[in-house]
Amino acid sequence: MISTDTATGRPVQIQFDDNTLLPALFGHHDEHLLQIEQLLDVTLRYRGNQLEIQGPETSRDIADRAIENLYDRLKGGQEVAPGDVQAAVRMAASGSLEDSRIAIRTRKRTITPRSPVQARYLEALGQADLTFGLGPAGTGKTYLAVAMAVSELIQGKVDRLILSRPAVEAGERLGFLPGDLQEKIDPYLRPLYDALYDMLPGDQVAKRLSGGEIEVAPLAFMRGRTLSRAFIILDEAQNTSAMQMKMFLTRLGEGSRMAVTGDMSQIDLPPGTRSGLADALDVLDKVDGVRIVRFGEGDVVRHGMVTKIVTAYNERDNSRSATKETK
C-alpha cells in the first residue's frame, strides 16, 4: 500500500497492492468508508485499487493512518467489522496505533484493544498481580479480562480460571428465587458465561467447567479458599461490601493474578452502605503491584448508541449535581 500527499491541502492518494482485500476493507455497500467519512468529516472516493481522501489536513491524516491499520489487519488474516473501523479511527486520532497491535489470542478469536485505555488495561492485566478496571458499561472491562484469562489458561500460564460476581445484591439474598442453587445463581452469572462462549468453542467451555479448570460462581463461594495458579476475576465489584471485598482480595495465592471490574455509577447497595470497591481503591491506591485503569465515555466500544446513552445519563446526572450545589 502506498500513500501520497504531494502538498498540504491536496487529497491523499492510497494505492493498495492486494485488490482481493478491498471488499472487506470497504465493507458491505461501502459501510466502512461511510463510517470513516462520518467520524472524520472527510470524503472517500475509490477507483480500482486507488482510494482518495479529501478533507481537512488533520482528518485526512487520521483517515489515512486508520485505513492503513485496517488494511494491515486484513493482510494479517483478521476480520474488519464496523467496531474495528471505529477503533482504528479512535487509535489513529490518539496517536496510539502501535498499541492496536497488542493481540490476545483465544480459540475462537483474536482480541485487540479498541482504545488507548484498553491497551493500557491489557498491559496491566498481563503484568500486575491485581488490576482494577473501572468505568461505564460497554468499555470492555470484563470482556478483556476474560480474554486475557482464557489466553493464559490455554497457554498453560495458569491452571484455573475463576469468574465471580456478587449475586443480586451485596447480601446475595437468593432464597426467594425458584429452583435449585445453580438455577438461582445462573442468571446473575450469565454475562460471564457469554464472554467465555465468545472465546472458546461450546464443547471446550463445557469440558473445562465440568473438569474444574473454569469455575463460575457467586462471590460467597470464594470464602475460606486460597486460589493458587489461577486467573481470578470479580465482576460488578461496586456491589460488594467492604468486608466481602477484603475477603475476595485475600484469596490470592501463589502464581495467581486477579482482575476486579466495576462501575461506581451503578451501585445497587442499600442506602448508607459503602461500596467495597470504593473502599479497596482508597486502601490499595499506593500498594506496589496494584494497577488501577479508569475508562471513560470515549472508551465505550459497543453499539454507537451505547456511547450516546452513557453520555446523556452523565450529562443529566452532572446537571442535577450542579443544581443541588447552587441551592
In short:
The protein has 327 residues and is an alpha/beta fold. It contains 11 helices and 12 strands.
DSSP summary: helix tally: 11
Uncertain segments are: none
Distance between the termini: 60 Å
Quote the beta fraction. Answer: 15-25%
The largest β sheet comes out as: 6 strands, parallel
* Overall average pLDDT: 87
Can you write the helix and strand succession as a string?
EEHHEEHHEEHEHEHHEEHEHEH
Structural class by helix and strand composition:
alpha/beta
Q: Describe the global form.
A: globular
Strand order of the biggest β-sheet: 9-8-10-11-7-12
Radius of gyration: 22 Å
Helix content bin: 40-55%
Number of strands: 12
Fold topology:
Blueprint: E1 2-4, E2 12-15, H1 22-26, H2 31-40, E3 43-47, E4 50-54, H3 57-75, H4 82-94, E5 104-105, E6 110-111, H5 116-127, E7 130-134, H6 141-154, E8 160-165, H7 181-199, H8 202-211, E9 214-218, E10 230-234, H9 242-249, E11 257-262, H10 276-284, E12 290-294, H11 304-326
Parallel strand pairs: 7-11, 7-12, 8-9, 8-10, 10-11
Antiparallel strand pairs: 1-2, 2-4, 3-4, 5-6
Helix pairs in contact: 2-4, 3-4, 5-6, 6-7, 9-10
Characteristic key phrases:
327 residues, four-stranded antiparallel beta sheet, globular, alpha/beta, 43% helix, six-stranded parallel beta sheet
Characterise the protein shown here:
The chain has a 6-stranded parallel β-sheet with strand order 9-8-10-11-7-12, sandwiched between helices. The protein has a 4-stranded antiparallel β-sheet with strand order 1-2-4-3. Strands 5-6 form a two-stranded antiparallel sheet. The mean pLDDT is about 85. Helix 2 runs parallel beside helix 4 (about 80-95). It has 11 helices and 12 strands. It is globular. The protein is of the alpha/beta class.
